[in-house]
């Protein structure tokens, strides 16, 4: 895709990745984008690069605006290779001696990826860089998404280059929020739930800090997805809401099944929840991707997990999901377990242990049923569903 002037003398020069479908374990059904930006001032600066395979596309885009060798500075807001993988190719093309600005952690981390003797310039939190008419300022945003992450802000244009924050894994011809309306929000929500949820307390602190600084924001340019120019506050407000993790009257019933018994239990629990006015859905782990389930977990008040007992343990997809969810540290949720078994029946106990370790509020010891749920077993599932409904916030 050709470069686009997003503000006077500021260009999107990134790349669209139409074909990727996985981002380290997160499903990206519509591909993604690697956004990079060129600021043409008395000094010319490239902000971020792209994944290694797209480096030539970035250079081609830059070449349509200016000879890449005329770039004076490069800024790396984040070391992860979807943004820095193209650095080697870019530095080779523009000149290995050009100053490369990054955070102090970025300096350490980039050097682990690139042994070349580049002209690294580690910046302080709050540090500035004059381009002539414009001044850039840098803000450390540790752990959003890596220890090296930082934001770059163009004071005169009130544009924030926010790296991973406020992004979405979405490949499309649209470059701006006003071209997509609310259709972009499910992508932003999924991105938050699967990439940033565990850093929710840091996000709240960061938003508070930005508000205290009185930072004016006419545009937020993340490194993935569309640019927020019509209403940057929309995504900031959504981040505050998602970070707060206020539970809704909503339950996610996550399960796998061998011969449909645990599935029958899941559906009985969902029926009971629905009868009590809870927004509930069963999510079968071999039909729903773990990252789509996490998106639903984000604002749910309850996560109920079911597994048959297989070889004295959990069904493998259930273990996978629990490991994934644990790492993302969801908060303010009720938990419960269920599952069928043939002889030993450890699954419910094992799920309880995992959910307790995640600090979910366990409101019931769980329901385990031998082989196939009979009428009494279905009733036990209904009772569990009703108990969960009672514990959830009222609508
Ligand atoms: Fe888009 Fe943390 O990389």
A few lines on this structure:
34% of the residues lie in helices and 25% in strands. It has 395 residues and is an alpha/beta fold.
**Based on helices, strands and strand pairing, what is the structural class?**
alpha/beta
The CATH class of the largest domain: Alpha Beta
Largest sheet: 7 strands, mixed
Rounded Rg? 24 Å
Q: Strand order of the main beta sheet, please?
A: 1-2-7-8-9-10-11
Outline: elongated
Number of continuous helical runs: 12
Ligands in the structure? MU-OXO-diiron
User: Helix proportion of residues, in percent?
Assistant: 25-40%
Q: From the coordinates shown, what is the CATH architecture of the largest domain?
A: 4-Layer Sandwich
CATH topology of the largest domain, by name, is: Metallo-beta-lactamase, Chain A
What is the first-to-last residue Cα distance?
A: 46 Å
CATH superfamily of the largest domain: Ribonuclease Z/Hydroxyacylglutathione hydrolase-like
Count of extended strands: 24
Name the poorly predicted regions: none
Keywords:
single chain, 395 residues, alpha/beta, Metallo-beta-lactamase, Chain A, Rossmann fold, 2 domains, 7-stranded mixed beta sheet, 6-stranded parallel beta sheet, 24 strands, elongated, binds MU-OXO-diiron
């Amino acid at each position: 895709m050709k470069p686009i002037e997003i503000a006077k003398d500021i260009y999107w020069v990134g790349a669209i990745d139409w074909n990727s479908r996985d981002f380290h374990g997160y499903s990206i059904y519509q591909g993604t984008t690697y956004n990079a930006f060129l600021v043409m001032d008395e000094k010319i600066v490239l902000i971020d690069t792209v994944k290694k395979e797209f480096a030539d596309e970035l250079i081609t885009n830059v070449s349509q605006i200016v000879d890449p060798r005329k770039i004076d500075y490069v800024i790396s807001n984040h070391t992860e290779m979807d943004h820095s993988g193209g650095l080697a190719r870019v530095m080779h093309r523009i000149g290995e001696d050009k100053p490369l600005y990054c955070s102090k952690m970025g300096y350490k981390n980039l050097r682990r990826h690139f042994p070349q003797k580049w002209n690294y310039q580690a910046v302080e939190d709050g540090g500035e860089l004059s381009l002539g008419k414009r001044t850039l300022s840098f803000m450390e945003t540790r752990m959003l998404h890596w220890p090296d992450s930082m934001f770059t802000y163009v004071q005169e244009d009130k544009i924030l280059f926010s790296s991973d924050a406020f992004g979405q894994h979405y490949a499309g011809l649209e470059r701006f929020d006003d071209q997509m309306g609310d259709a972009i929000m499910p992508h932003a929500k999924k991105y938050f739930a699967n990439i940033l949820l565990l850093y929710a307390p840091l996000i709240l602190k960061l938003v508070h800090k930005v508000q205290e600084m009185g930072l004016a924001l006419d545009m937020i340019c993340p490194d993935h997805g569309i640019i927020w120019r019509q209403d940057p506050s929309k995504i900031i407000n959504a981040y505050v809401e998602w970070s707060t993790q206020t539970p809704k009257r909503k339950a996610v019933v996550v399960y796998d099944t061998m011969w449909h018994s645990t599935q029958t239990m899941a559906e009985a629990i969902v029926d009971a929840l629905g009868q009590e006015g809870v927004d509930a859905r069963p999510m079968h782990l071999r039909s729903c991707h773990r990252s789509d389930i996490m998106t639903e977990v984000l604002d749910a008040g309850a996560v109920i997990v079911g597994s048959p007992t297989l070889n004295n343990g959990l069904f493998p997809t259930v273990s996978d999901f629990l490991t994934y969810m644990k790492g993302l540290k969801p908060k303010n949720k009720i938990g419960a377990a269920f599952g069928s078994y043939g002889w030993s029946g450890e699954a419910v106990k094992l799920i309880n242990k995992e959910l307790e370790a995640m600090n979910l509020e366990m409101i019931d010891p769980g329901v385990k049923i031998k082989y196939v749920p009979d009428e009494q077993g279905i009733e036990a599932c209904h009772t569990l569903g009703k108990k969960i409904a009672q514990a959830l916030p009222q609508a």
